[in-house]
Amino acid sequence: VQLVESGGGLVQPGGSLRLSCAASGLSGSSVFMSWVRQVPGKGLEWVSQIITSGGIPNYISSVKDRFTISRDNAKNTMYLQMNSLKPEDTAVYYCHARLMSNSTQYWGQGTQVTVSS
């Protein structure tokens, strides 16, 4: 299994970015797919989660109405559309997958998002 994130970068406050997570080796599995972020020196923060077999996504309160998680199962890709970005959204964003069958977890390498003027 391999998870590869892309789409991070530097953006001004109020701007937008779309992160992508291309997954290989997960086809046919029911998976909890998540975006997790980490600020240097702080712990991991689960930002949003979606299930590949369907269901309602969930978000932490600080990103609700600004971030949208989605997936394209045909492309084995998950997205995070981030709008109205704030400096406090600055972090390394990781793609995370957990198999529903046995809870095995996988992580991407992370992509840096910096929100600054």
SSE diagram, text form:
Elements: E1 2-6, E2 9-11, E3 17-24, E4 31-38, E5 44-51, E6 58-59, E7 67-72, E8 77-82, E9 91-99, E10 105-107, E11 111-115
Parallel strand pairs: 2-11
Antiparallel strand pairs: 1-3, 3-8, 4-5, 4-9, 5-6, 7-8, 9-10, 9-11
Question: How would you describe the overall organization of this protein?
Answer:
With 117 residues, the chain is mainly beta. It contains no helices and 11 strands. Strands 2, 4, 5, 6, 9, 10 and 11 form a 7-stranded mixed sheet that branches. It has a 4-stranded antiparallel sheet with strand order 1-3-8-7, with no helix packed on it. A hairpin with a 5-residue loop joins β9 and β10 (105-107). It is globular, with a radius of gyration of 14 Å. The relative contact order is 0.33.
Helix content: under 10%
Biggest sheet descriptor:
7 strands, mixed
Count the E strands.
11
Mean pLDDT: 93
Helix-strand topology string:
EEEEEEEEEEE
Structure described in brief:
The protein is mainly beta.
Offer a few descriptive terms.
117 residues, 11 strands, mainly beta, 0% helix, globular, seven-stranded mixed beta sheet
